[in-house]
Inverse folding.
């Protein structure tokens, strides 16, 4: 009887050889590059201590605690599973593998050989650990298993040969099953996941539901993906309500919070705080579900753009001339339905992405006047000016938020800052003779907002202005450190979510003024998001799509500079290395020289230059894997460059914005003799990781350029009735109640004006 092969659409246990490269299924997962970083190489003890330190620090924390604790547990599970799988494959015990001796001084030998039953138990343990890792975060677990030994990839299939009903082994083998590269949608059936979900109790079904939803995204089964993600979110919500703390637990949490505040005031070491137990640590599953469901909604909105715009201009022309017929009227009705889908799905995507970033904290920092005064004090003390007036030791700086300027000390004026800071002497800390006269500084606590507050109808009032991307001069070093106090909690998917919010607003036809404010705040968060020392800068498809939309839609928002420059982290001051002045001016001079030389080139030289630049860009594209993909990438770049040169793809009307984009492009392609400036940890290549336009970017750009703000033929909004002056209050109340409607709010927002 022929053995059933896996990799075919009907699914099985053993890999089926296919054309080309055959790799594990989990290596096809999206956003794998978002979870690369030093957490894969750091010792587990140091990684756990960093997670504990991140949890005990005041908000906003450097890294989201839920994803931090998840990667710590994933590292521990994968490392233990790798050790167990190696033990099982070699068939020797830990004593023989590590070379340790027993009581009589002998180690290894025949007595250290493991029995078959013991080997199977070890593999069962490894499978359970791997299943727990994939249940926490399958993307991070896939990255971790890629760094582990090759025996990890086979342990699930080996256990299934003896115990085919093992749910953990089936779940692990689903990720490690080998299929042809770049053909996941054709070689990934849903039957294994259906069996896993039906075999698990309801409270454990959320992770496999998430996995099945991601597989359906690969298969472009969008409706099924939404149903699975929604069901998983419902399960997580029910589990949270089920484990809602009672009154005793609330009192215990309040007491622990008071103890933590007392600990913060006493400045004790963070190691004195007891670590959280695994069951008490926050989980990131809800954030994963919100992010992925928002992406599905955004994809569905973009797919309806074509149906909403195809033939619209011809219909409007025929309608103006009175030449419409029944067929065209029916087509217009279909276009109106597609328009409702675009806005309806975009609204749902915006809701999910906003709920996702609401889990992360943002602070505008301490007001500049307070930090500048503190830095001035520290500077004076560092330069030997220890003789302080008696009034300065107990000086009170009051920034009450009024419109009038408040006095800061003697002879120093500062604007209102909305907070109160005390600069006073702490007698309990003045034991050292060297610092007995130093006015110890108590920094005021900065205001904390959820990151979603920056995209609300009213943004926080104390947002600082975005700093210029030019290097800071030497004489303003303390001002630079005093004013750069913004911070946001980092998540590997935060950058992609921010740019997806902007794409959703573009589909919702948000006014350019409001969308410009949202874009400015998205750039603000993107430039300060830093995953150091755990995660590296992640590639963002949504960011590349947003840059392409800005290019194709003619910068309809009126951005003052290129998006790469707006999102670039603030450069380090001159004193940090001396590179800023020399290299910053060198890039500007070189880019201007290149523009002058390009004006004198012939058409043949221009064509050759574009070809060479396209080849260089295509060679740096990770998606180029063979000759066919290389030729396709080169042709796409040549076509795009020629469109930009000839003005076929909406040439930029804003000359300042166009010059900024050109400077960024030339600075990235020209090899200059100056030394390149050091990059900050989270600074990426500004969207060049996905240089070829995607269908999503083309759909959003077309919607921005062609979609009218209102379409005739849709439902008309009911006009508001003005209340007659001096009318009967009873009749007015009765009329108001009669006008109430129980229609769904989502349907009301989707009506066409």
């Amino acid at each position: 009887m022929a053995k059933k092969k896996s990799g075919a659409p009907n699914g099985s246990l053993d890999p089926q050889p296919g054309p080309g490269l055959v790799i594990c299924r989990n290596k096809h997962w999206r956003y794998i590059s978002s979870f690369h970083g030093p957490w894969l190489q750091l010792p587990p003890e140091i990684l756990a201590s960093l997670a504990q330190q991140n949890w005990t620090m005041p908000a906003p924390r450097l890294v989201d605690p839920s994803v931090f604790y998840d990667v710590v547990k994933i590292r521990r599970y994968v490392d233990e599973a790798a050790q167990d799988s190696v033990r099982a494959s070699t068939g020797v015990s830990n004593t023989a593998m590590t070379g340790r001796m027993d009581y009589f001084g002998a180690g290894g030998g025949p007595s250290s050989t493991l029995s078959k039953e013991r080997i199977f138990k070890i593999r069962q343990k490894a499978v359970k650990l791997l299943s727990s890792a994939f249940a926490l975060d399958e993307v991070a677990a896939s990255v971790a298993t890629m760094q582990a030994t090759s025996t990890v990839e086979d342990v699930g299939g080996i256990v299934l040969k003896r115990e085919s009903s093992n749910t953990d082994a089936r779940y692990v083998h689903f990720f490690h099953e080998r299929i042809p590269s770049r053909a996941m949608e054709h070689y990934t059936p849903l039957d294994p996941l259906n069996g896993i979900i039906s075999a698990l109790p309801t409270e454990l079904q959320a992770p496999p539901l998430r996995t099945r939803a991601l597989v359906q995204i690969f298969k472009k089964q969008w409706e099924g993906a939404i149903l699975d993600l929604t069901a998983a979110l419902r399960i997580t919500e029910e589990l949270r309500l089920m484990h809602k703390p009672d009154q005793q637990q609330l009192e215990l949490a309040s007491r622990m919070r008071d103890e933590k505040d007392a600990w913060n005031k006493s400045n004790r070491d963070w190691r004195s705080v007891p670590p959280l137990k695994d069951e008490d640590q926050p989980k990131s599953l809800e954030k994963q579900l919100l992010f992925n469901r928002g992406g599905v909604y955004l994809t569905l909105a973009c797919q309806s753009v074509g149906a909403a715009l195809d033939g619209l201009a011809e219909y409007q022309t025929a309608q103006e001339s009175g030449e419409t017929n029944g067929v065209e009227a029916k087509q217009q009705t279909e276009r109106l339905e597609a328009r409702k889908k675009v806005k309806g799905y975009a609204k749902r995507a915006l809701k999910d992405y906003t709920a996702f970033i609401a889990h992360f904290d943002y602070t505008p920092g301490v007001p500049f006047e307070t930090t500048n005064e503190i830095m001035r004090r520290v500077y004076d003390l560092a330069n030997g000016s220890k003789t302080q007036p008696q009034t300065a030791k107990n000086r009170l700086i009051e920034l009450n938020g009024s419109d009038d300027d408040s006095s800061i000390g003697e002879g120093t004026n500062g604007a209102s800052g909305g907070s109160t800071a005390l600069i006073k002497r702490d007698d309990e800390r003045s034991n050292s003779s060297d610092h007995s006269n130093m006015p110890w500084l108590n920094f005021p606590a900065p205001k904390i907002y959820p990151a979603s507050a920056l995209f609300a109808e009213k943004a926080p009032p104390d947002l600082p202005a975005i700093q210029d991307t030019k290097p800071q001069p030497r004489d303003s070093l303390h001002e630079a450190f005093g004013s750069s106090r913004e911070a946001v909690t980092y998540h590997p998917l935060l950058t992609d979510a921010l740019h997806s919010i902007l794409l959703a607003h573009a589909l919702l036809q948000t006014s350019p003024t409001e969308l410009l404010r949202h874009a400015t705040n998205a750039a603000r968060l993107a430039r300060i998001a830093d995953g150091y020392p755990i995660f590296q800068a992640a590639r963002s498809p949504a960011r590349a799509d947003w840059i392409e939309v800005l290019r194709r839609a003619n910068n309809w928002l009126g951005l003052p500079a290129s998006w790469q420059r707006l999102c670039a982290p603030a450069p380090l001051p001159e004193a940090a290395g001396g590179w800023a002045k020399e290299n910053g001016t060198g890039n500007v001079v070189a880019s201007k020289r290149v523009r002058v030389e390009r004006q004198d080139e012939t058409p043949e030289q221009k064509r050759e230059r574009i070809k060479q630049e396209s080849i260089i860009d295509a060679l740096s594209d990770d998606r180029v894997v063979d000759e066919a993909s290389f030729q396709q990438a080169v042709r796409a770049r040549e076509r795009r460059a020629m469109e930009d040169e000839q003005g076929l793809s909406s040439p930029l009307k804003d000359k300042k914005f166009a010059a900024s984009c050109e400077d960024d492009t030339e600075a990235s392609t020209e090899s200059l003799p100056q030394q390149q400036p050091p990059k900050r940890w989270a600074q990426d290549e500004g969207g060049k990781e996905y240089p070829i336009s995607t269908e999503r970017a083309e759909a959003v750009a077309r919607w921005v350029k062609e979609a009218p703000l209102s379409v005739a033929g849709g439902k008309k909004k009911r006009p508001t009735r003005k209340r007659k002056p001096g009318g009967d209050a009873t009749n007015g109340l009765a009329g108001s109640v009669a006008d109430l409607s129980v229609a769904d709010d989502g349907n009301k927002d989707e009506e066409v004006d």
Observations:
- The chain has a mean pLDDT of 74.
